[in-house]
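Field log, afternoon session.

UNIT: design team B
ACTIVITY: writing a sequence onto a fixed backbone
BACKBONE:
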C-alpha cells in the first residue's frame, strides 16, 4: 500500500512540476525548441552557406527568437530558426527542432540569402557573420513638404553585397509607394505619393539583383523603419459651382 502511495505521490509531483514549468514559459513569453537529432549544427546565419559556429546535442532545449523563410509543402533547406546561443543569437535549421508553434506562426526576424542563376550565394556578401547584422548606420531625412518643398532626401546605411535599395513610403491609410536607388540616398517626390494628408512612414530594404526587372530582385534583409514625415493634402482644389 505504501509503495502504491509513493508512486502516486511521485506522479502528482511530476505533474505539478511540469505545470509550473509550462506556466513559467507562457507567462515569460518565451518560446522553446527541443533538438531532435544527435548533433545539430548551429550557424552564424539562416542559410547553409554560413559557417557552423557550434553544435547542440539531442534533447537540448533552446529559446527561439524568430524565423527566416516559410514552410510550404516540405522542408527544402530554406526554413531556419533564430535561437539564443551563448552571448549572441544564432541560427539552426528548423527541421532539427521540435517546437510548440507551427513554423509559419513564428515571428520573422531574418531572411534567406539571395542566389544567382547557378544557385550560389553571390560572392560579394561577407558570410563571416549574419549579413543583416552588418547593416548598421544612421537613417536621416532632409526637406519639409509642409514648408512647400516637393522632394525629400533620405539616407540609410548601405550593405556589402547589396546593389539596390528600396524606400517604401506608407500613407496614413496604408497606401505604399516605392522609391528605388542604387546608393545610400533616395529622393521621395511628393508627386508620386497619394493625395491624402497626414503622417507618412518610410522604411528601407536592401536587395541583390542581376536583372533589370524589379520582379527578379531578391530582398536581403527585412524592412527597417527609417522615420516619419508630414505631408499636406495635395488634391487639386475643387471648383466652386456657379449660382
Amino acid at each position: 500500500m505504501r509503495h502504491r502511495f509513493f508512486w502516486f505521490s511521485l506522479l502528482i509531483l511530476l505533474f505539478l512540476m511540469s505545470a509550473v514549468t509550462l506556466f513559467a514559459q507562457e507567462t515569460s513569453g518565451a518560446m522553446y525548441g527541443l533538438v531532435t537529432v544527435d548533433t545539430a549544427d548551429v550557424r552564424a546565419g539562416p542559410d547553409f552557406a554560413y559557417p557552423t559556429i557550434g553544435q547542440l546535442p539531442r534533447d537540448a532545449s533552446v529559446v527561439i527568437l524568430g524565423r527566416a523563410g516559410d514552410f510550404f509543402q516540405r522542408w527544402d533547406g530554406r526554413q531556419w530558426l533564430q535561437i539564443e546561443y551563448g552571448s549572441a543569437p544564432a541560427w539552426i535549421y528548423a527541421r532539427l527542432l521540435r517546437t510548440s508553434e507551427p513554423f509559419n506562426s513564428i515571428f520573422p526576424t531574418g531572411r534567406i540569402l539571395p542566389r544567382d542563376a547557378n544557385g550560389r550565394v553571390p560572392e560579394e556578401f561577407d558570410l563571416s557573420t549574419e549579413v543583416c547584422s552588418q547593416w548598421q548606420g544612421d537613417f536621416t531625412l532632409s526637406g519639409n513638404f509642409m514648408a512647400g518643398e516637393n522632394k525629400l532626401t533620405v539616407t540609410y546605411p548601405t550593405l556589402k553585397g547589396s546593389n539596390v535599395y528600396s524606400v517604401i513610403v506608407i500613407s496614413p491609410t496604408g497606401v505604399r509607394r516605392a522609391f528605388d536607388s542604387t546608393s545610400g540616398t533616395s529622393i521621395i517626390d511628393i508627386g508620386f505619393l497619394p493625395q491624402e494628408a497626414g503622417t507618412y512612414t518610410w522604411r528601407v530594404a536592401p536587395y541583390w539583383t542581376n536583372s533589370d526587372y524589379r520582379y527578379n530582385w531578391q530582398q536581403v534583409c527585412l524592412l527597417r523603419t527609417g522615420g516619419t514625415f508630414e505631408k499636406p493634402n495635395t488634391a487639386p482644389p475643387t471648383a466652386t459651382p456657379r449660382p
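LOG NOTE: The helical segments are 2-28.
NEXT ACTIVITY: expression trials, pending approval
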